[in-house]
Amino acid sequence: MVTALSVQLTVLRGRGEECAAIRHLLGVLPTGGGGALLIQGEPGSGRTALVDYAHRHAEGCTVLAGTGLREEAGLPYAGLQRLLDPVLERADELPEQQRRVLLRTLTGAGCPAHRRLALSLAVLGLLTAAARERPLLCTMDDVDQGDQPTADVLAFVARRLRRSRVAVLLTTAADVPLDGMARHRLRPLDDRDSLALLTDRLAGRPPAPSVAAALGAAAGGNPQALVDLAGVLTPGQCRGEEPVPETPPPDGGLGRAYRARLDRLPADTRRVLLLAALDEDGEPGTLLRAARIAGTAVEALAPAELAGLVRVEPHRVTFPQPLVRTVVRAAAPLAERRAAHLLLARVLDGAGHRLRRAGHLAAAAQGPDPALAAELEQAAAESGAAATAASAALHRAAELSDDPARAAARLVAAARYAWSAGRAHRTRLLLGGLPAAVDATVAGRAGLLRGELELRAGHPRSALTTLLAAADTLTAPDTASTGTDTGRAAPDTAWTAMGRGRAATVASTAAGADQAGADGAGSGDRALALGALVRAGEAACFAGDQYRYAEVARRAELLRRPGDPPATELLSAYVAGTAATLRGDHEQAGPALRRAVVLGGQLTGPALTPGALTCAASAGLLVAVDGAAHRLAARAVELARERGELSALPRALELRASAEYWLGRHDAAMDSSREGLRIARDTGQDNWAGVHLGMLAVLAAVRADRETALHRIREIGEDAGAHSRPRALAQWALAVLDLVDNRPAAAAARLAALACPGTGRGQVLVLVMATPYLVEAAAAVADRPAAGAALAVFDRWASSTASPSRRALSARCHGLLAPRGSAEAEQEFRTALRLHPTAAGAFERARTELLLGRELRRSRRPRAAREHLHAAREAFTLLGAGVWADQATTELRAAGESVGPPEESVARLLTGQQLRIAQLVAEGATNREVAARMFLSTRTVDHHLRNIFHRLNIRSRTELARALP
């Protein structure tokens, strides 16, 4: 086991604001600035740690410390007696009447209602007297757990400390009515603080990023939950090699705290709470019927709700902390759990509850039950359940199966659902439960999933081998097997249902696998095999082994059939077109890739899957139809969200970001990559996390944001392979920064090393994207061969497309390589300006203006240069690209023009995307209309509009219209 630190850490992660408030409270005490602070937070959120923090920082103060005890909640003033006992000798300094009521109350004689004011004033006087010699800090942790009269008195005192040397610090888990004092609600830790806390607890060794994301999700931002999780991690789990716990351990500190609360509840409350914990759906009607049959009522949950264990809402019963559900289940004896499952199954008798009912019956089953297993499988296929629920149902169906072949098929189907839901560790665990010898079909499907896992975990070469083997197995003759004599298993219902593309189950993570049922008969699982080959091609490209794509294409060609359905034809066309692109045969690549784009736009019904759309979007980028590629990628993102296919989102978001980059929408590209990074980390897809980090680094470098670019590059780490896509993107970003800092030789060397197009090794596609920067760097150091070779590849591609933006970049590159001061150079630059789209690509157009202006100035034509330099400076200013605007300013001054700083205007205050949104809104467009015109989500437009209002210090659309010129 990994050893977590046993000592109390003095750094409270994510509690800086509360620590500052405590230090301020204590800091003003010596000068008579008394006060009070109430800290509210769920168990494990750090309330007690903050009380300890206050004690450690109370130098020169007398400290009175108490804790609310549930055992004494029925004893009025018991908590007050324990708190004040150390200073009761100062009671003689009180007025006689106050002294008598105080001592009478604290010795157990009670306090009549009409004497409560006198008692409260006596407590205030006692604390004030105790603070005459030294300032006094009085703390009561868990004040809501103790007796209510004590809480009332302390609240009274806390509201009257302004000119004293007394500070009161109270903590509570419940939302208690203790008004009149400063209140801090402890928020969940964010990702950064969660990672820092985990690193602290693991002796300074941070876990793998995917592990940190999984633990953060399991803990829900609760500090004690993170501590408990860190305490049970194995070294393999820390490295991401083994599945991590999905909930904190029930016997950890947080689990024990909840268990103690659970033990204090009435029997009826625990009985209904168990029913709620076992019914994942949380539908109040189900719980109401089950509680009635159990001889109680749902109202019995009230004590549990007051204890913060459960939340009862009009349409749902939820557990605010998932660990509570686990603790409730673990605390109940097996017989009680089984009886509760059977009771829930009894009340779930409607057609819409088929899967839930079967699940409860399965949980109560005590041995193999083939009929129940079949019912679970059928219910998972037909109920429209979420992928996580369907995975759990298929896993249980496998456990209840008495036929090893059926059990294996169901286990793989469960793994496939888990993978679609983005639960990589769960997928790996399920696949690990397969026997060594299984039917060929099951082996092929399992191999496809294993290949997916290896690819997404950043092991592309092993993934390539696995996926090619899976494709071979899936296309083997029907009688093939992997060593058993069981023959080919009957098609399992769940896998077939997923293959039909049901919206609520999850379509294949291998694009096009939705046609498996239609194409599989008599010819092996051909569509699944094509999907495996698509992923194998991704693995080859990701690893920088593009030369191996030819093998993928050869195998895919063997699977092509006349009259293939659209989704299958799309896959074949995509693989053939990509292979032709990688070998430089654009004449053959273009028609195949354009066919894939057309097919992607025509898919409907079961054939419409995120995987198919991402293939079509990728094809669109390869033939430079950026608008179509963006629409297809955006549809893939939307569809994956609708169906809960989390595993498909990072790739779809990567393609959407790439399309936005080519369309010149850098802000939108950054939004897409940030979302892709978050989801990739949450789902354990380290490779796509690295790709999104690399893209964010490039986008930051292009905007000359050195700090952000370097931060993203550091996040990629050293684990990425030397020729992997994340490493290539990082090198591209560093090269751009080299250019910004006038180090063209270093930039050229970095970019030239990205790939060797002649051999197909390295990141050929990244090199093509970065070629304009390579040519610019090489031209500055007169390295014509390196620039010429890269530009020749770029030209062949650009000339095969109908993209004005690609041809504009090509012309600009030729202008850079033409002799300085020549008519050829100027002509190429002006051709580039003519080709740059006016509706998009403002940044690249501004770069061309800058480079043309620089060329004209160096050719001793300063007057002609100024026009282009002014245009570049204005565009960069509007885009918020300050460093590039400064370069244009420097060139203008070198051209003999005195240029001051640009005026502070709306254009200066907003980014380029924000300015465009502001202009559309000022023209009267709604947020939905702006989103449609700019290919953004309405949520993104809302976010940007709030920032626009904040930056311009305005409050309405009318004010915005007035602010714009």
Describe this structure in words.
The protein is mainly α and 965 residues long. Among the domains are: 170 residues, Rossmann fold (3-Layer(aba) Sandwich), CATH 3.40.50; 59 residues; 93 residues, Arc Repressor Mutant, subunit A; 185 residues, Tetratricopeptide repeat domain (Serine Threonine Protein Phosphatase 5, Tetratricopeptide repeat, Alpha Horseshoe); 55 residues, Arc Repressor Mutant, subunit A. The strands form three sheets. The protein has a five-stranded parallel β-sheet, sandwiched between helices. The protein has a two-stranded antiparallel ribbon with strand order 6-7. Strand 6 and strand 7 form a beta hairpin. Helix 11 packs across helix 15, helix 22 packs antiparallel against helix 23 and helix 32 runs antiparallel to helix 33. The protein is globular and about 105 Å long. The two termini are 65 Å apart.
Helix content: 55-70%
Give the strand order of the largest sheet, numbering strands 1, 2, ... along the chain.
2-3-4-1-5
The CATH class of the domain at 719-903 is Mainly Alpha
Query: Which regions contain 5 or more consecutive residues with pLDDT less than 50?
Result: 1-9, 478-491, 493-524
Structural class by helix and strand composition: mainly alpha
Mean pLDDT: 85
Largest sheet: 5 strands, parallel
Quote the distance from N terminus to C terminus: 65 Å
What keyword list fits this structure?
965 residues, mainly alpha, Rossmann fold, Arc Repressor Mutant, subunit A, five-stranded parallel β-sheet, two-stranded antiparallel sheet, 49 helices, disordered N terminus
